[in-house]
Amino acid sequence: MALSGLGLVIYVIFHMLGNLQVFEGPLVFNGYAALLRDMPIPLWAARIGLLSLAALHIVLAIQLTSRNRQARPIAYAVREYRQASFASRTMATSGFVLLLFILFHLLHLTAGVIDPSSVDRPDVEGHRDVYGKVVHAFQNPFIVAFYLAGQLGLGLHLSHAVTSSLQTLGLEYVAFNRLFKAAGPTVALVVVLGNVAIILAIFLGLVRG
What we know:
Number of helices: 8
Radius of gyration: 19 Å
Strand content: under 5%
Order of helices and strands: HHHHHHHH
CATH class: Mainly Alpha
Number of strands: 0
CATH architecture: Up-down Bundle
């Protein structure tokens, strides 16, 4: 569970860094997208690997939740949290929100099912205009609202998941405890701010087609 989660976290970070190239303009962003498409074997291997990793993570999460419930079939009469954070108590909810967001994102910008009007057109270099597709998408307030809600789920999930995974793998030392505890919230904040910056910059007209 911890290893599959950290693998997905690494992908999320690099995905955000790659998308930040939208601030460099259409030529750079479309060139980046074209570079990925020009390597079909590594690209599809990465896609299949990520989907398999995500499926494994979901299955393990369901199994762990089931085991926890079986271990204590009778709920506590009074539940009082002392150390558990809001993010840790809502991991199942944030995970479900995140799953819905990922499915929407794939159908929206990857498959083009949700908004067929934003088809990939060629840019001046002859590459697919992925930049124009992204700009078109985030001019829609409903799309923006859904993506922002997805970022809320992502932030909550990452905030607890990273720290929890490090603890599960035994990375706990007195000298670095504060660092490990801050790892989750820090990664969550950086990733969410990066993604939200892209969404709002386009919606507010700071990045235009």
